[in-house]
Amino acid sequence: VVVGLSLLLTFFVMAPVYARVDQESLQPYLQGRITQAAAFDRAAAPVREFMFRQTREKDLALFLKISGQSQPETLDEIPTTSLLPAFVISELRTAFTMGFVIYVPFLIIEMVVSSVLLAMGMMMLPPSLVSLPFKLLLFVMVDGWYLITQSLLLSFQ
What we know:
The chain is mainly α. The chain is built from six helices and no strands. The protein has a domain of 54 residues. Helix 1 packs antiparallel against helix 2, helix 2 packs parallel to helix 4 and helix 3 crosses helix 4.
């Protein structure tokens, strides 16, 4: 289910980029109006624009510095070899932030259940056995899939 949702959300988020690539690059190439190299360059432009919108300047500066490149004046001067890892690092940061925000309420439930079980003298009963239904109930009650999907989609500009 999670892999299917990931794939569908990817198609949804990237649909405008795919449409531009198809219109500006693939169709002219298939019609024989441009060369393969020109098609590749035209296809890279919308993808690069998307990645620039999602990439933090700090991450991009890191990879430019490590590769020994000077700070470019325009976005077109930034090599894709520096843009790609900066994009991935930016997305990983966003993913870890979202994961932490999702994890904290479940951690609180686990701690409360552990404290209650300990206060009742039930030290041998695993807290996760008791807290799992409460975690599932919380996820369902707050409409967790909607919130996760919304936060994922809103993380893309």
